[in-house]
Design a protein that fits this description.
Blueprint: H1 4-24, H2 37-41, H3 45-50, H4 56-66, H5 73-88, H6 92-112, H7 120-133, H8 137-150, H9 155-167, H10 171-184, H11 189-197
Length: about 200
């Protein structure tokens, strides 16, 4: 039979553990990985595979495709989850905390994988999006241009730059970046559409 003293001791233990975790982990990091099917539905399929929610064959397939970044890719998935939650947040403090957590996850993962990894331009672009949501424009543009430097054919980075320039009344800058992107990737429908809409 459980005594009232046991209950009190377990309550104390819970709060000691909780407070310890909040001191060890930055704000927003306690639930730093997607938890629900709804969370995973907004993420690339390899995130679900890395979490062990799919078959081992599926996980092995993704591990082969991604290569050296597979071991740590859960950090990137965590960053994407933070970014998604920031977009949905109505409280500005929570939104800022989620965005900073996303950037922390992205940069940590980016530093852990080879420079030639196919994920590098994508990580820079996602980091740029987070910076842009924080109104840190200089840092955001630097990340988008870095993505292009890594892979000149990576169209999402051109799209982000063009959208930024268009939205800030710089249509000529937007046109230049779109034309530059189309030289590298002439079949890109998203770049062609943006150019036609200018």
């Amino acid at each position: 039979m459980i005594s009232s003293g046991d209950v009190m001791n377990s309550d104390k233990l819970f709060w000691v553990l909780f407070l310890t975790l909040t001191l060890i982990f930055p704000a927003g990091q306690l639930s730093a990985y997607p938890q629900t099917d709804a969370d995973f539905a907004l993420l690339p399929p390899y995130c679900k595979a890395r979490s062990g929610r799919t078959s081992s064959a599926d996980a092995e397939n993704w591990a082969r495709r991604i290569g050296k970044g597979w071991t740590d890719i859960h950090h990137y998935c965590s960053g994407l989850d933070h970014l998604n939650k920031a977009k949905m947040a109505t409280d500005s403090k929570i939104r800022i905390r989620q965005l900073n957590s996303a950037i922390h996850s992205f940069t940590g993962f980016q530093e852990s994988i080879p420079r030639e990894s196919v994920l590098q331009p994508e990580i820079s672009t996602q980091t740029g999006r987070a910076y842009l949501m924080l109104d840190q424009v200089g840092a955001a543009l630097k990340e988008f241009y870095n993505a292009i430097k890594i892979n000149p054919k990576y169209t999402p980075a051109y799209s982000e730059l063009a959208d930024y320039y268009r939205d800030n009344n710089k249509p000529e800058e937007a046109r230049k970046i779109l034309e530059q992107g189309l030289k590298k990737n002439p079949k890109s429908k998203s770049l062609k559409r943006r150019l036609n809409e200018l």
